[in-house]
């Protein structure tokens, strides 16, 4: 068999396994709650690995390697910031989110700031998730086009269709189970490529000789950029839909915290390995486009190792896209379809909408991806949008009396255009859009606090009461705010 045939065969076997798991898990998706929650509780280790697989997509691996190709090993902070964010999330927020037992981040914010904030926060989160999906398709398409020798546009379309369809089949349970396979394949793949790349670059000595000293400095990108990654990346984890959604699938608050810590143990070393590959690519293939840093090192492998690496990279696309599509469709179901178009809570109608919206959310970014190129920039913008919501997560749990409900609504409405506008303007004065994402709600909420006008936020019910039921199986009572109190 040729090298190409070996690689394609391994990828096809992987896709067949993923499809089989989705079909097996489809029973859990026969109800709307089963589709978005998975229909059962899962161990902390499973959810920890699941969340790690969600975060480590191609925009994280290919994008980090791309940044390292030009900026050096310090690009590892891009994923390291997410790992630090999960540590903070585990210590300060995981138990509180589990106690709320809300399946959407917007539903959690409604507890404190009202239904208006829920709708706007939901739209902001959906926009953020679709931006991340766009970056995943761009990086995934570029990677697959290089490795399999097909047109980049066709690669994007193929990945988009396959990744969306398997989520539609099985819902949240299939996403969890398939992402356990994905994270194992991703870790093996990134380790294989990193070891081979390090050897090809003649190790640390080769990198020192061939590259400027800043490429090997851990602060080479500058502390301003590292700080922005910590703010946008770490902060985004406090207010990311698929993270909050995953918290509802464990059985206790302690396990929710443990799951977050497991995730951080994967992300930090993964970021270092991805950045190392980018630096090695700058030594071995200095003439290539930065987006090809990781794929170029995969091409240099022998056929069997290349098959492992390619499968791992494709798993990165599938793992992230599955999380993004299930998260977006859950927001659309809970925040728009249920209260406005399914007030009678027709189960069959809800399931149909959940499946259709999952497919649509998977395919919309495909169109945008055909015109996008800056993988890390688009991903970072999406994190910044979520970081603005993280401000309200912190205030909701630790200072609900600060500002007002009206101030929160105005803050979220203004944060989206402010952050996107600042990004389009090229981050004027050297101020990263991540800082604008944090400052905009803080300034508006401070004005609301000083003016003394507007209704104060409510203390979230889940932080004060212990009697909120926790789902323990497919037949457990639904606990989402809309499902338990009726559509508004």
Automatic annotation (TrEMBL):
Keyword Membrane among record annotations: yes
| UniProt feature, compositional bias: Basic and acidic residues | 479-488
Q: Which residues cross the membrane?
A: 6-25, 46-69, 75-94, 120-148, 154-176, 183-201, 221-244, 265-284, 304-333, 353-372, 378-398, 407-425, 431-450
InterPro entries xref list? Na/Glc_symporter_sf, Na/solute_symporter, Sodium:Solute_Symporter
The compartments listed are: Membrane
Recorded topology in the membrane: Multi-pass membrane protein
Report the main location listed first in the record. Answer: membrane
Cross-referenced Gene3D superfamilies, in alphabetical order? Sodium/glucose cotransporter
One GO molecular-function entry: transmembrane transporter activity
What Gene Ontology cellular component terms go with this record? Answer: plasma membrane
Map out region (Disordered) in residue numbers. 463-488
Q: Which UniProt keywords apply?
A: Membrane, Transmembrane, Transmembrane helix, Transport
Family as reported in the entry's similarity comment: Belongs to the sodium:solute symporter (SSF) (TC 2.A.21) family.
Task: Report what the protein is called.
Answer: Sodium:solute symporter
Identify the species of origin.
Answer: Streptomyces antimycoticus
Q: What is the lineage of its organism?
A: Bacteria, Bacillati, Actinomycetota, Actinomycetes, Kitasatosporales
